[in-house]
Design a protein that fits this description.
alpha/beta, Rossmann fold, 7 helices
Length: 209
């Protein structure tokens, strides 16, 4: 059974976090584009957390495929490292700080600029995690300080895009352990399979952008 992106996102509740895992050869920007358009149509507030200019990569590929990206550039964006600037940047965070400092600063920015029920799209999570994956202690602090505390507060919904190819398998396994909903892109990004979900009946279904 296949679900359109709206049918997949509708049951989300505050605190739910989705991990979209993809390979370097996939096109995650297609799912991102559909999810953002759905959120806009519902009138939801959004923030894009852009790690190492991944947002710019996404918009460039979308433009080359003939899609209109003008509306994406109006979304409030928190820039985390990188060179190319994309979106309406409202804050910049240094990703090379101590992981606890980074996590606190990121959480503070979200509290300042996000309203309750805001949807956060976190792009380039794999690149960010690669900074700390050589230090298991720092990696654990990242998951506890940022991922778990965000879920516990239950103020936002988050969609995290992470490239499997930039992390060690064991690092990605830790990320998957902490997140309740996991999508894996298939056929280059033309669809995704639900690998894990808070509602077991969704597992195994396909989502199409």
């Amino acid at each position: 059974m296949k679900l359109r992106i709206d049918r997949f996102l509708e049951p989300l509740t505050l605190g739910d976090t989705i991990l979209v895992r993809y390979l370097p050869t996939d096109h995650p920007e297609l799912l991102f584009y559909s999810a953002v358009r759905y959120a806009l149509e519902k009138g939801e507030n959004m923030i894009i957390a852009d790690s190492f200019s991944t947002f710019h990569v996404f918009t460039t590929l979308l433009t080359l495929s003939g899609r209109d990206v003008a509306f994406l550039r109006d979304i409030p964006t928190v820039r985390i490292g990188g060179i190319a600037q994309e979106g309406r940047v409202v804050s910049t965070i240094n990703p090379f700080n101590d992981v606890s400092i980074f996590a606190r600063e990121f959480a503070k920015k979200m509290e300042e600029i996000a309203t309750p029920e805001t949807m956060i799209f976190f792009l380039g999570a794999g690149k960010l995690l690669s900074i700390w994956e050589n230090n298991p202690y720092d990696l654990s602090r990242f998951f506890i300080e940022l991922v778990m505390k965000t879920r516990i507060k239950r103020r936002f919904c988050s969609v995290i895009f992470a490239n499997v190819g930039v992390l060690r398998p064991e690092t990605f396994e830790k990320l998957e352990f902490y997140l309740p909903i996991i999508l894996e892109l298939k056929e280059g990004g033309r669809k995704a399979e639900i690998l894990k979900h808070v509602h077991p009946e969704f597992v195994g279904l396909e989502v199409v952008p």
